Amino acid sequence: MTKLKTVLLGSVTAIAVTTGAQAADMMMDVKAPREPVYRCDVTGFIELPGTDICFKVGGYAMLVAYASEDQWDAFGTGAAYGIVPDGHTLEDTTGMYAVGRVNFDARTSTEYGTVRAYVEMQAVDNDTRTGGSFDLRHAFVQFGNWTFGKTWSTFLNLESSPVYTDLLTVTGDNFMRRNQIRYTQSFGRGFSVSIAVEDQDYTTPSAITAAGLFAPVWGFCGGGCAVVSNRNDVPDVVANIKAEGDWGSAQLSGALHNNAFRDVFLGSAPATVPGSQTDSEIGWAALFGLLVNTPATGEGDYFTFKAIYTDGATQYNQDNFLWTTNTVWGACNWLVPANGDCAVDTVTTWSVLASFTHNWSSTWSSTVGAGYQNVSAPMTVFNAGVPSLSSDFDMDTYEIFGNVSWMPVNNLTIMFGVHYGHVDFNGAGTTPAGGFDPFTANPAAADDQGALAVALDIVRSF
To answer: Which of 4, 82, 188, 298 has the fewest beta carbons under 10 Å from its own?
Structure first.
């Protein structure tokens, strides 16, 4: 009111000392619509002139240099499940790549709360003169308690993800950015609940046949056919409950996913004809994430823990050998379609991941941690007495890692990380002949294998 009063008094004074047409012009100016008086007091944001929008530009530039043993295509796979025997990849064991990331954040205070629009793009380039087209990471609108658009899945708990190099995704971690509609309600004292519907086609979930082949390639489904995704009218339902405080944070998440597949003759249209059976199976996933501050060991120190379990919803623990394969597809009776029951089982995964971060000083810190994951697809019952088919798939993966970070100046971080990964197929794919043959794709593969990878990250954020 004081500021407005000063403006009005100043206007009256100006009118009093202005003559003729000039005075009339000034009166018209005073009566004309005025731009809103707005103050942007959000740290790091600036006011867009003539608007009520607080605006911020951020991002970073990063170089990653890496080296790995021959068994680990660290750049191509980025996770320990991709470790293969010596000589089974021709990928470079050393390399570099650059990352450019930029984001835009626009906010306005309204009677409904803050209205926000956020967009983030990223480009990665490792071996071209000019390349690495920008890809969309985030694009969402927040209006009051609602979030609409693409951003981190409601299932995730990013606080319980350890600090490690950009090159890899540590065993047991997960990063999902999905299109969604989310509602979040806070209850005070650090408690909140979120519920969302999210796009069910994230990374296109698939089936694996009893022969050990991925849909939609040739499988053991009778008459020469393929398993393809069927129409799915149900989005994923995802929710979490979260608690935060000076002690740290904890979160429990859950998700439901409907698996819908169709058995079709190779080369035919997906019509409902004999030999084109459909089946569906509900999958689910759960996560527990924890971050505990440990001031007794040093200022800023903390411990993280994350556990994930999935049953028919592997995309919620996707960094594994079977990727987002959710169901086991049996030998459908294509002569008698009414028998149905093609989705005979589900793929299950479970993982645990823990880390500890210690700050040695205001500029030096380090993180150590380890993760473990098991993936299982039961198929033996369908393969009894058929020598050409695979046995049950059961794979264990573990990873141990450590890194040291130096921040010589604000917003510049130099980190060196070391990772050791190990995979054990537990004889998965073993045929009656006794050879190790994971899905007949790599007959000379080793049953278990370990490898080492190191990386240097140099990041300047803004």
So the answer is: 188
- Between CA 1 and CA 204 the distance in angstroms is 57
- Give, in order, the Cα–Cα distances in Å from 15 to each of 6, 9, 22, 30, 171: 14, 10, 8, 10, 73
Tell me which amino acid residue 376 is: S
Domain boundaries, the chain: 51-461
Q: How many residues does the chain have?
A: 462
**448 touches 398 (CB < 8 A):** no
Number of Cβ within a 10 Å radius of residue 44: 9
DSSP state of 332: -
Rounded CA-CA distance 186/244 in Å is 11
Give the span between the Cα atoms of 359 and 138, in whole angstroms: 31
The model's pLDDT over 343-388, given as tens digits with 9 standing for 90+, comes to 778 999 999 999 999 999 999 999 999 999 999 988 654 444 444 4
Sign of CA pseudo-dihedral 292, 296, 300, 301: negative
What backbone torsions phi and psi does residue 273 show, to the nearest 5 degrees? Answer: -130, 165
CA separation (Å) from 360 to 363, 370, 417, 423?
8, 21, 16, 33
Q: Helices in 265-386 by DSSP H: which ranges? A: none
Instruction: Report the predicted TM-score, pTM, of the whole model to 2 decimal places.
Output: 0.84
Q: Cis before residue 216, ω within 30 degrees of 0?
A: yes
Superfamily of domain 51-461: Porin (2.40.160.10)
- Convert the pLDDT of each residue in 147-159 to its tens digit: 999 999 999 999 9
Look at residues 356, 251, 347, 243 and name the one whose alpha carbon lies nearest to residue 307.
Answer: 251
Measure the CA–CA gap between 262 and 276, rounded to whole angstroms. Answer: 6
In contact, 105 and 55? CB cutoff 8 Å = yes
